[in-house]
Amino acid sequence: MKTLLKSILSGAAVIAFAAACTETKTNDVQLTASGLDPEAFVDTIDGKATALYTLKNDNGVEVCITNLGARIVSIMVPDRDGKLTDVVLGFDNVKQYADRVNTPSDYGASIGRYANRIAKHQITINGENFELVANDGENCLHGGPTGWQYAVYEAEQIDDKTVKFTIVSPDGDNGFPGEVTATTTYTLTDDNAIDIQWEATTTKETVINQTNHAYFNLNGDFTQPGTNMVLYVNADNFTPSDEIYIPTGAVVPVEGTPYDFRQPRALDEIINDTTFEQIKNAGGVDHNFCLNTYDMDTFRGDDSQVAASLYSPVTGILLEVFTDEPGIQVYSGNFQGSGAGADQPHKLGLIYPRQVSVCLESQKYPDTPHHPEWPTANVKPDETYRSHCVYKFSVK
Q1: Which residues, in sequence order, are bridge partners of residue 154?
Q2: In angstroms, rounded to a whole number, what is the distance separating the alpha carbons of residues 34 and 37?
Q3: Residue of 199, 320, 325, 361 marked catalytic
Q4: 287 belongs to the catalytic site
Q5: Distance of CA 43 to CAs 51, 168, 351, 354, Å?
Q6: 350: domain range?
Q7: Closest CA to 183 of 161, 205, 168
Q8: pLDDT tens for residues 47-69?
Q9: How far is CA 303 from CA 60, 105, 375, in A?
Q10: Is residue 188 located within the same domain as residue 230?
Q11: How many distinct helices (H) and strands (E) make up the chain?
Q12: Does 138 qualify as catalytic in the annotation?
């Protein structure tokens, strides 16, 4: 019956159907509020067991996460009418998340060991050169072809609102030095925020730069582009990149450019402005913004201030991002709707169009190992890497 309904429903109708699935059972298994079947996430990958973990708060907000890549699979938050709405893209089974050939994706993942790009897949630490594994032309992207988004973490559900994931990355993983033990802890708070804490230690000096790669669509309809969403970024500057998405090394004011989001503006207003070279090269927005919430003198970020926000005029859902990192990567889904896996069904059987979502990834600046003047990503054996990001939801 569930298969038949999925085949005849589409677009917003499918999503509305999913919101009503909380009480539906398939094979005597309770579906999540977003319509996920937990059994579809039970598997063995690389000899390790996978599962789906569900967090709920006192307001009925639900977050589902799998330990494959510590990925957020769904986030159900209320819209302005109180209807629970899924606001992140993804798949409805673990096999598609694990398939690096047919359905490669970073949907919802805890990215590591190094988020974003490292130029020419090379780093130098203490005078020693390390060859990383290239997976983005000549560059290393998101930790290489077998980055942590494809690894199975050990999971510990601490309580109904908190789950902790742990990974041990061996020395030489995708070319990176040092055995790294890293944790990602998700806590769903009663003010409808997802609090993400990353920690890591290493046996050798290495580079670590973790983030979450959730693809947000706050409109409640994943069949339509999300460029009507209104973006705010608390940043006076950004780091321009070349034709292959590597930072040039410059830090450029946003003032007078389409990338000035210091006053909220819809992405529609700028997304097709190809007279701006950075938009032309990226096919939209795919850039690091230098956050005003970070003090470059003390190398400390203020995670009590809003770093960025995203708003849907359709549902009234507002997402605010808080972080102690110096940068945030804004990505407007420019590669969606093309490439491997684009024609494959995603959650609820939907096919995603181009620019259906926006990613807001807290981070060190991209390619930091080649720019010592920027906040460092280097971590020594006697140090603990820590990073903090909060995705807070409300309505207006």
Answers
A1: 166
A2: 9
A3: 361
A4: no
A5: 7, 20, 24, 31
A6: 222-379
A7: 168
A8: 999 999 999 999 999 999 999 99
A9: 26, 28, 16
A10: no
A11: 4, 32
A12: no
